[in-house]
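Hi,

I'm pasting everything inline rather than attaching a file, because the server keeps stripping attachments. The sequence lines come first, and each chain or strand is labelled.
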Amino acid sequence: MSSFRMNVMVCGGTGCMASDSNEVIQSFEKLIKEHGYSEEIQIVKTGCFGFCEQGPIVKIEPDNIFYVRVHPKDVEEIVKEHIIKGRKVERLLYQEPIKRERIEQHKKMPFYKKQLRIALRNCGLINPEDIYEYIAFEGYEALGKVLTSMSPMEVIETVKKAGLRGRGGGGFPTGLKWEYTRKSEGTTKYMICNADEGDPGAFMDRSILEGDPHSVIEAMVIGGYAIGAQEGIVYIRAEYPLAIERLNIAISEARKLGLLGENIFGSDFSFDIRLKYGAGAFVCGEETALINSVEGKRGEPRNKPPYPAQKGYWDRPTCVNNVETFANIPPIILKGSEWFSSIGTEKSKGTKVFALAGKVNNVGLVEVPMGTTLREIIYDIGGGILGGHKFKAVQTGGPSGGVITEKDLDTPIDYEHLMEIGSMMGSGGMIVMDETNCMVNISKFYLEFTMDESCGRCTPCRIGTKRLYEFLKKITDGKATMEDLDALKQLAYMVKDGSLCGLGQTAPNPVLSTIKYFGDEYIAHIKDKHCPTGECKALAKYSIDPENCVGCTACAKVCPVDCISGKVKETHVIDQSKCIKCGACFTACKFNAVIKP
Amino acid sequence: MQIKSIEELKKIREKSMKKVNLREHGEVSGDQVEVLVGMATCGIASGARETLNAIVDEISKEHIENVKVIQVGCIGHCHSEPIVQINVPGQKPILYGKVDDEKGREIVKKHIKNGEPLKESIIEDTFDRA
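And the predicted assembly:
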């Protein structure tokens, strides 16, 4: 056989692998071999499809049928029915949550309909461990074009005109950063890829590296040529073993084909890439701290200026770009800056990848044009709020961002608009919350994170975040006063103004934005000693409604500390002094008699 | 092997296309031809698998792009299996009966490549679809 008649694409992203996609692949291989179809059917392990909620994903081409939640047990049915007989397996098709319709093609699913995939273009389409598949989809053509027909300044101009901005969160124009590094004095320069993705809940960079590592490698070589560097370094956290493995494979395959190394494409330009593992400190996402870490020093930020473009790695001009930023470069070179700048809003061009998480039906990775509204992302792509609950807020920008409420849901998303409504783009984490989430608790969660991750270099951040956390703890414990709330606000502004780097400067954002939009919740905790959502355990006070209680004893049976007393068919009572607020009685009661605070 | 020019890269790309040509990506151009092969029990029993593989092989040999070969369930003419349906955009679908591997290759060469249907093998569609 000179070619296969069918491709079975199985997701090999971290999300799907955690739900046994490796076993799914093995059983496909085994069964297809057993039935004697190995010559006709190709099984491909791909990168992330983005629809992690529904994993493991299996897509069959050319039929273009998209199966979701495929358990290793289901493989036999797919092989016998679909692969051998051409009958699709209805029960494994995606079911739309509202109309309950089964949808067989991914393009028709609301989750994919509004997406435009530029950075994620090859994720779920190619085998990331096979350089030839990347080449088949125009891989390394942008590099060839750059090295054989463009001057470094032409490359920089193209990226500048495209309007690409840093996807790591800062939003600094990429072309300008390249230009500054190119114009800095010195013969030895460095190109660094920032793959130290640290926001809780964000995983877009990991998915790009796992699903399409060559796009980042190709772009780093292009960037290296533009700025005049011979060496590239990928700073990647050691917690991303799969991304590291695939990057290593990709780098060695690229070297074999001469796409990394000496005289690439027969030009006199040479470039090579190595990896540097990070220990997973959040602060190392900040570029100067990252550079310190690459040099083998403690991951602490430096004063700016001088900027890395002037004095970076070993005091030499260095350009640090994020993974997603790099992934956009090859299409810009091939399709042109006008194509790219036609997508998006006035000041933010192109698309942005978001990691959609929290209380939303379709958790996953989505890439949308800039200017898409939050409502479209949460309700159309995300499929609405989980379990029919009510939308309360969405948190963007991770620990550096803020919350966005119902009234701002129709804001078009771009760097400027998100800043205007008191949040930020950040690296693209998007956490949806419903009415059961306590906002004080949420800001406490983020402060605990930044407190832990503060590197300790500057006092406002080291001590400030700790004190902020203590105030929040006091509020959720019901021990705070209104003076504490004022002090909390004042301190938040001090930490913002006084900190050395972005970590401290943005750490108070979750506190300030939750106070702004949900001030009444803070006051309820302080004045009424009451948590409106019941999430803060110290303030919870479960009680039994004598009207509804039928004396079934269900609550008393599940209580782990035996603090519910009462005889059969008589009203039960909770002993508040012994209650540990676990909520087991609330869950157990079938008569709505247990009142949740 | 080291790639030293764009031409060499393009050669490697052409070779690699075969591995991925079944996969849908980006915009689909409007002139894609669909080849449907009936692969129900009766189809398989009459040798539809061999037909299907022959068609895929021939398409690849003739370097025809823009053709999608899909296996489908029972088309309903079990007496004439293996059945192959050719959908050319903008034209009425054409149904062929008793397509063995040789005839499959002929369909690719004559009908898909040159636009000349094999009149003697066409079977009439006797029903309308809802």
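DSSP finds four helices and four strands in chain B.

If the labels don't parse on your end, tell me and I'll reformat.
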